[in-house]
Design brief:
Blueprint lengths: L2 H8 L6 H11 L4 E9 L2 E6 L2 E6 L17 E4 L8 E4 L5 E5 L7 E6 L3 E7 L6 H14 L2 E7 L7 H14 L5 E3 L8 H8 L3 E5 L6 H9 L24 E4 L5 E4 L12 H7 L1 H7 L16 H8 L4 H19 L3 H29 L1
Parallel strand pairs: 8-9, 8-11, 9-10, 11-13
Antiparallel strand pairs: 1-2, 1-4, 2-3, 4-5, 6-7, 12-13
Helix pairs in contact: 3-7, 7-8
Amino acid sequence: MTSSAVFSALAPYGWDASWAEQFSPYDSEGLLAGRVLRVDRGQCDVVTVDGVLRADTAFVTPHDPLRVVCTGDWVAVEPGGNPRYVRTYLPRRTAFVRSTSSKRSEGQILAANVDHAVVAVSLALEVDLGRIERFLALAWESGAQPVVVLTKADLVPDAATLAHLVQDVETTAPGVPVLTVSSTAGEGLDVLAAVLAGGTSVLLGQSGAGKSTLANALLGEDVMVVQAARDVDGKGRHTTTTRNLLVLPGGGVLIDTPGLRGVGLWDAETGVGQVFSEIEELAAECRFQDCAHVAEPGCAVLAAVDSGGLPERRLDSYRKLLRENQRIVAKTDARVRAEIRRDWKRKGAEGRAAMEAKRGRWE
């Protein structure tokens, strides 16, 4: 098969010269290049120059859950056979990973080779800024550019309220585009489509956020099944059950995902720092390099809270996500566990010294 034919077939799915160069060793072996559209129980749908093929992932199923084949991967597929097998996948440019809800604290890869991570937030319910920060931390850590999309804007009663909500989210998401859309009214979709036209995007959010409706609006047809959210709490019913990669008519591809009830961090310290970039900048001005921003003298972060320049909610959320991320990393990294133990001992010694000093003054 000629390289021009491969480019013609796969370019709409994101194939480029760099992917072709990485694939060249497998091309010489007679394997087919393809992109994974969907994975389900060890089987995957792969788009190739020969069309969409069904392939088995048994050869690429290691014990590490972060190295399994996932939607968005570029893979090398056998040209024939029954069953047909995926032989390997190309090194990922980006990967969106969260921790699972299991007690083993394993990572789960949701999508690979993503350029934009679209966080869908429904305006039909009270906006949860902390959850947005959590999604954004994972998005930044993945290497993708986050985009927050406020859906169901037609349900907001007036323009002033909408502007206030957008401002709150923009403050929560520094450096992140915040767009408002109404899939039913068709408002804001052209702007979002233009943003997504340049690569691969993954659509994230809770059940009921309107992801499937948004995906259908961007696709221009009812590809994803849609169910109404419950009136009592606005939650959806997991309409989407697998991650599906779909070509957008205006360019680019979209990976739709099931609603995420739990969004656990997974080794996302850099991402947390990006979400709270204003706190990281203030921390550089603290008197002590290891300032915990709790009660230390000369803390620029606490001074900003006292002056009203930094919302206390932001600082609380920052601390919470850093603690959570540290716990996750500590379960798999002995060095981090040792550092945490040393920090506990240091704080314990400081506490005992303070108590002894108080006793001395009392006596």
